[in-house]
Each structure stands twice: as C-alpha cells, then as structure tokens.
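We close this part of the discussion by returning to an individual protein. The sequence in question and its structure tokens are set out directly beneath this paragraph:
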Amino acid sequence: MGISPAESGSPEKEQQAAGVGILLQIMMLVLSFVLGHVLRRHKFYYLPEASASLLIGLIVGGLANISNTETSIRAWFNFHEEFFFLFLLPPIIFQSGFSLSAKPFFSNFGAIVTFAILGTFIASVVTGVLVYLGGRMYIMYGLPFVECLMFGALISATDPVTVLSIFQELGTDTNLYALVFGESVLNDAMAISLYRTMSIVRKHASSAQNFFMVIFRFLETFVGSMSAGVGVGFVSALLFKYAGLDVDNLQNLECCLFVLFPYFSYMLAEGLGLSGILSILFTAIVMKHYSYSNLSENSQQFVSDFFHLISSLAETFTFIYMGFDIAMEKHSWSHLGFIFFSILFIVVARAANVFSCAYLVNLVRPVHRQIPLKHQKALWYSGLRGAMAFALALQSVHDLPEGRGQIIFTATTAIVVLSVLLIGGSTGTMLEALHVIGDSHDGHLGESFDVNNGYVAPSFKKDGTSGNGIKMKLKEFHKRTSSFTALDRNYLTPFFTSQNEDDEEEEALLDERI
C-alpha cells in the first residue's frame, strides 16, 4: 500500500532517496538492538524490545510526517503486506519451528492444536458476531455479517513475541511457554486461512453449498500445507544424507542448500494457494529432527546461528516498519465507538477461546497434567495482536469497499499499538501477580514422558463410567503416541538420517545448541 519507491525524477535523485531511506532503517535497527540490550541488562520489563522497536518507528514516522519529508524517501517505509508475507515472515516462522523444544511442544500438541484451531475459530466467530450485533444495536459502525467475520478472523491472529521474550528471561513453566508459543504459530496460519476463506465467501452469494466449500477449503489448506512442508523436509533429509556434502570443501554448498529449502517450502505452498506459514513451520520441525543431524558439525553451528540472526533482524524490523507506517498512514478516526467496542469484544472473545478450550483439554487430561487456572489466565493475557493482524488489516483496505476496510484498518492499528505497549509492558507484573515466575521447568515434563518419550497414562480409581471412558481415551492416545515414537525410532530416523541408533544424549545436546 502507498507510493512505490520508484517515482518520476532523475535516477540520481531516486538513488539518493533510496540511500537515505535505507540509512534511516539501519539506524533505527541499530537503535532498537542497543536499546533492547540496555533494557534487558537493567531488567526493565515495562518496555520490552518489541515495544521499544514499535515506539521508535512511531516516533520517527511522526517526525517524518510533521517535517514533510520527501515522498520518495517516505515511500521506502510504506508497509507492503507482500514484503511482510514473502520476506519478513518466513525466517521468523522457520526459526520458531527450528528452535522448538520437542518434548514440551509435542507433549502439549493436542492442547496447542485445540487452542490454535478450535480456539481461533471460537474467537473469530465470537468477535464477528459481537461486532455485527453492536452494529445492529447502533452502538458502533455497522458492517455486513461476512465482513464482521473477516474482521474477527484477522484480529484473532496473536503475536506474543514480546510476552515470550519476557517468559524466557523471568523463567516460567515450560508447558506454559510451549502452549503460548505453539498456539501463536499455528494460530497465525488459522487466522490467515479463515480470513481468506471469508474473503472468498464474500465474493459469492451465501448458500449452504458455500458453507461446505468453506470447510473443504480450510481442510484442503491445512492438510495440503502440512503435507507440502513435511514432504520438503523429508526430501532435504534424504539429500543431505546421500549427497555426501558434509566434507570440508562442500560445506558452503551444504549451508546454502539448507537455507534455501525453507524458502522453497514457503513459496511452494503460496504458489499452490496454500498456507506458507504452516508449510515452513512443519518443514522446520522435520529439518531439525532429520536433516540437521545429516550436516557436518560446522554447518550445524552455522545454520543455527544464521537463522537466529535473520529471525531477530526480521522481528525487530517488522515492529519498526509497522510503527513507521502507522504514523504515516491515513486513518479513519471518525468511528471511535467501533474501536472502543472492538477492544471490549476482543477481550471477551479471547476469554471464550482460552477458558472453553482449557476446559475441554482438562476433560481428557490426567489430574497432574491439567492446565491450572493461573496458566489459563496467563494464556488469556498473552493474546496481544501484532504484525500479522496489522498486515491482514492492511490487506482488507484493498478487499473491502466504501471505506469499510479503512475503518477496520484504523481499529486494528489502535488495538495493535495498545496491546503491544500496554500488555507487553505489563507482562512482568502479570506473571508476578499470577505467581508463575520460577515455576518448575521439568517437573511436569518428567511426569509426562517415559524413556521412549511416550505419553504415560495415569492410573485411575474405578469411580464410575465417566472415569473409565476418559481412561480408555487416554490409553488409546498413549498407544498412538507410543506407536509413532516407535515408528520414528525404528524406521523414520534410520531411513532419513545417517544415525542408525536413537542417541538420546546427542539429541539433548543438539536441542541445547539450537
């Protein structure tokens, strides 16, 4: 959106404007990293690094707006959703999957999927319905029902980068971290799928056939993206196993190929009309588990450091980029009621998402692995909105006519700024109030895994048919998990890696390094 960098004028002027624009971006990146380091060093959690980056972008953008900076320079700071989705997002998502701690993530995978898929659907529908009812009651600007659902979908995309960084520094329960982290990654893909599906429905007449088309389209996107990601990951594992690239003079080629495979996965899914986020996430998980061990030791260290580096740069730049564009864009502030009630409805929808899904998860979990109420409150509080919601809202300006997209964009902008600055800045206080700082990192996990990393179903007393039914479900889940663990250990790992035995100590060292 906005003006393209290439405008009428001499090539020398355009090159000079490009140089000044890029110089300002680099200066803001340097300032963000230095300020973030100082804040962390002094343990000042009221202004996390992401919030500081957003503020820097807002301040510089505001100054540029006031000083009437040349249009050719300002054009370099316009937030282009294509640039975000195709260049900034892939390294962030890949690093998320690549740095996953496998045990807590997969021990909570059922809960994560419940929160990310069912929970996001609940939050989207509740938000959409409340916004629609608010419009019908004339307490806020009224939108058509499908457009309310589009707004509900885009605003349900959470971005807890700020919260997770504080979780890490203060030390919280590993399972809580895994739930917040896993939900946020899968939630983004779900929100994008819902938004695109609602956009398709809006362009066609509403009917029962369209409803089934929505379900089919979502399943097609989810299964297709996951299959594409896993397939690319397996192909990369076989290539690094049999191509003989782990010799000294071919390590550069080995690293180049490893870096290219994630982008190949992302662009393949996007080219097929699927979800690049889901695809690259599963590629990251598979490549970490299988491809990574086929690399030489030097290449392992390089790719770990490389993806961590570009992910940090992309995250920081995204918040700066977003802050600058928020200050520069035209906003529709004439509907403050829409913004105010949207914030209230989002809070209610997030509560409906977290507490209903936690209730369902706890129904089938043993007592010692249930999600405690204080963790549910932390999950509810951690649902701040960020770059994903902002990018989808910017896209809605093009998708929705008659200024309705502009109203949604303005509301989303206000929600993003308030949530990143207020929720991000008060996360440390929230963790202290809920008494989740310093929770055990291993206690729950130790009870959740046997020597084969399989889920251990607890023993139940015979206290009725309901308890026996839950016990049978847990046994079936234990059997499936153990079967997959055995399949991975006995067949997949030997086939896709150069290691013929499952060396748990070596895997632990790899997890620590990543």
Residues 1-8, 440-466, 500-506, 508-514 have pLDDT under 50 and may be disordered.
